[in-house]
């Protein structure tokens, strides 16, 4: 990764992209979602403070473990004066997200087990295939397409 001299206090979007490893489009997306901010030059170009590098690292690390952007944004918004996350912030938040991640891993394990039943089957039955209709609440009470209007004369 390219080093940026300490004397440079603001980065262009290209420098931020090169240093953080995030695509320019991703940085624009983060900004549109309020995760990072920039100031505009007189020529309407974006400039990012150096601390945004750490913020982007925080966002990308959280995304890698599957934390939704909305959750990341909420976590960043909770920091006083929207400051850059410190080591302690990351330690605290990553510990809290660990529980969420464990639950997601359990759910994925269950899905994997169900998928094993589907391999080589192909029925996609609404009655027997857990993956084709996992939240079939009505199916617990009745079968068939009971929500469709009765055909006249059928
Ligand atoms: S496709 Fe037959 S059980 Fe899922």
Tell me what the structure shows:
The protein folds into 2 domains: 1-85, Multidrug-efflux Transporter Regulator, Chain: A, Domain 2; 98-148, no CATH class. Helices cover 47% and strands 5% of the residues. It is built from 5 helices and 3 strands; from the N terminus they run βααββααα. It has helices spanning 13-20, 24-32, 51-64, 69-78, 87-118; strands spanning 10-11, 39-40, 46-49. Residues 149-154 have low confidence and may be disordered. FE2/S2 (inorganic) cluster is lined by residues 117-118, 121-125, 128-129, 131-132. This is Redox-sensitive transcriptional activator SoxR.
The overall strand count is 3
Write down the overall mean pLDDT: 84
Q: Report how far the terminal alpha carbons are from each other.
A: 70 Å
Number of helices: 5
Low-confidence stretches: 149-154
Q: Strand pairing plus helix content: what structural class?
A: mainly alpha
* Main β-sheet description: 3 strands, antiparallel
Overall shape:
elongated
Please indicate the count of domains: 2
What would you say the CATH architecture of the largest domain is? Orthogonal Bundle
The CATH topology of the largest domain is: Multidrug-efflux Transporter Regulator, Chain: A, Domain 2
How much helical structure, as a percent, in the residues?
40-55%
Q: Which CATH class of the largest domain is shown?
A: Mainly Alpha
Spatial arrangement of strands, main beta sheet: 1-3-2
Organism: Streptomyces lateritius
Keywords: 2Fe-2S, DNA-binding, Iron, Iron-sulfur, Metal-binding, Transcription, Transcription regulation
Pfam family, one: MerR-DNA-bind
InterPro entries: DNA-bd_dom_put_sf, MerR-type_HTH_dom, MerR_fam, Redox-sen_tscrpt-act_SoxR, Tscrpt_reg_MerR_DNA-bd
